[in-house]
Fold this sequence. Notes:
This protein is an all-alpha fold and 373 residues long. Among the domains are: 26-105, Serine Threonine Protein Phosphatase 5, Tetratricopeptide repeat; 294-372. It contains 23 helices and no strands. It has helices at 4-19, 26-40, 44-51, 57-70, 74-87, 94-105, 113-122, 124-130, 132-144, 149-162, 167-176, 181-194, 196-202, 209-221, 225-234, 238-250, 254-262, 267-293, 297-305, 313-322, 329-341, 345-354, 358-369.
Amino acid sequence: MTHPRATLAVLFLAWGAIVGFSQTSPDELRAYFEGKNELDAGRWEAALKTLEAAPRSEGAIYWRAFAMHRLERNPEALEMLNAFRAAHPESRWLNDGAALTAEIQGTEHSLAEADVTKWMYSSLVKALDSDPAATEAQCRAVLAGPYMPATKTRLLTILLGKGGEPARTILLDAVRGGMNPDLQEFAIGGFGRTAPDAVAEAYWSITDAHAKGMVLTTLASSRDRTRLAQIAERETAADLRERALTNLVTLGAGDTVMKLLEKEPSESLKRSMASQLVRTRRTVERSLSTLTSSREPKARREAVQGLLSGTDDSVDSMLTSIYPGEKDATVKEAIILVLSAHRSYASLSALGRTETNVSLKEQISRSLAARAN
């Protein structure tokens, strides 16, 4: 028998795929990120082996050359970087590759990794205020420099927390594609939570379709129906319009989708989205009907799971209202997970104040603690 939590985990993965979290096979994507984790742990040989199976060929090639340099296999690293530059003359990894090449050849000497880390945590925030121009240049040098993946994302994280200028300038540059694709994705996700208006505006200056999809994903995870609708109305690429419209269906903005479809130029997309909207509405209606009529825990739990997508704020209010009277813990778990996915943190906070079950109270606390992720 499948445990309810396992079933819900599968549903969350499916919901993530709907709004665009996954664009390649899980195994391939896992190989790339595991390879970078090996780098951050200083396991250079393991990183090399893992990255050979990674799908993002440009990023994987750079990080393999990086690992070779750390292993002092510099001739091999340079050969790989030179071949990479010739094969990918338009790559957004070229700045990173140039900095790594310069360090290997000795034409430039970067700060040691430990010194960069110390600077980030002891001096960076104050330096952004006292000497913004020089500090911005130093930040950009680190972000394009021969440093481990985590060092670069930690720097972006500090900039996200600092706010103001020049942090905003650097982050927007990353969002628009002025840095390598990994940093662009990280900046879109982080800045999208703190400044969704800026990221939504930057969408129109992004040329990479995958990065545009990341913006749509971020807006969907923030349940930003307004900006998704604006993009769906203006976007000229049919596949991106479809993703924006699909996100709106998932977020329960059916009426908005119907209005947008009145102006949709693609008949096939119009038919596809109308069909998706009908299916989603039927699932929601069945789930609501089951919650009203059934007292059987399994049926009620599955009904709550059916409300993971395609619902608006009124359904969150309904789930919040029935939670105190619900007797079955697995149904309550399902409600917590759905409210978490919907970012209904005020409702979760209210439920947490009255919940006496230790396990459920901890689940609510974990959901609230993860709100910034």
